[in-house]
Amino acid sequence: MDYSNEPPHSDQLFVQAQQPFNAEPSVASLVEFAYTPEELVYCRNHGPIREFAEEEYTISIKGAVEREISVSIPQLKSAFPKVRVVAALQCAGNRRNEMGAIKPVHGVGWNGGVIANCIWGGVRLRDILIHAGVRADSTLHVCFASFATLCQDDEYYGASIPLEKALRLDDDVLLAFEMNDEPLSAEHGGPVRVVVPGFLGARWVKWLDTLIISSEESPNFYQQRDYKILPPEIETKDQARSVWSKFPSMTSLPLNSAIGSAFKIAPSKLRVKGYAISGGCGNVVAIEVSADNGATWYPSRITYQEGKWSWTLWEAEIPISGSSGEVCARAKDKAGNFQPMAGSWNMRGVAFDAISRIKW
Ligand SMILES: Nc1nc2c(c(=O)[nH]1)N[C@H]1C(S)=C(S)[C@@H](COP(=O)(O)O)O[C@H]1N2
Ligand SMILES: [Mo]
């Protein structure tokens, strides 16, 4: 693989690996901002980061469309209305280290920092697909590909989503060229990346160059093999190989939360801050905090929430006794579900959703 580009340097991210560049901020720093500033947006790569000049970049649309077309970035910007959507990007491996404490897992040792709540600016994928003459057929998929670089497990990076989701106006699927009202940087997939609100980050293909409308999901490794929740009895990569095809590709992530900080503001009072996120669409309705391992739960204040796809920031002040201890938090969704007390284990360490805990 060609890693000739210098990996990005960061003071604010903990670098898990330089090549490919994988880095995350602390949860404590994340929860200080409603919109995650670029310096705190995690980087997750399965191959090298490439830089492209916008003028030389095109996206081709192929497969089950009336017209196979190729669109340049200036055309994309001038031909379709621009929209802004606030949405949380989250890696399926968020909180993997906590699952790894149950039993070792395969994957980058992420803490709770592989999440970012950003304003994404771009055009609606549906507008481009309609322009290319796609037919609204619920059996089809939109396959995204980036041939920008080789990846660790495949010749290119690919993912797909159901065409229905791409066409639904309310689902806000974008081809984004801005993040937080700035041009999208190379690290985060510039000139253009996919934004799939409510779906795991693995489907938000960076350096997007090809869209294929197909009767099959993307054949890419990262759609077909990786990013699947395998049953707990599958413990090794060899065992995984024989069952991959039997399990569905992940789409949305579970209801979740993480505590960023917990500190004493009075001898018997603790202030706790964190984020929460709902699985798929819709906001978290409440976050409860406990200092006695779930025997007593206290409500928290929601300090930020926006639209359908943002994360939720929250704060609580709760009574405590003694000089040290542990607090835990659980999010509740609009259907009344809470996060489970314990999370279940899977080989790749994805979708860990147990109540979050922190020592004080
Ligand atoms: N081309 C390409 N797109 C990609 C990836 C990648 O390795 N290559 N990683 C995916 C994964 S697993 C995640 S979680 C997000 C991370 O986006 P970020 O680096 O901007 O945070 O991008 C996704 N898109
Ligand atoms: Mo990811």
Automatic annotation (TrEMBL):
This protein's record includes keyword Oxidoreductase: yes
GO biological process terms on file: sulfur compound metabolic process
Entries under Gene3D superfamilies matching the protein: 2.60.40.650, Oxidoreductase, molybdopterin-binding domain (3.90.420.10)
Keyword entries, A-Z: Metal-binding, Molybdenum, Oxidoreductase
Metal-binding as UniProt keyword: yes
Domain Moybdenum cofactor oxidoreductase dimerisation residue range list: 267-354
Boundaries of every Oxidoreductase molybdopterin-binding domain copy: 46-222
Superkingdom of the organism of origin: Eukaryota
Cofactor: Mo-molybdopterin
Gene Ontology cellular-component terms listed: mitochondrion
GO terms of molecular function: heme binding; molybdenum ion binding; molybdopterin cofactor binding; sulfite oxidase activity
Name recorded for this polypeptide: Sulfite oxidase
Upper taxonomic lineage: Eukaryota, Fungi, Dikarya, Basidiomycota, Agaricomycotina
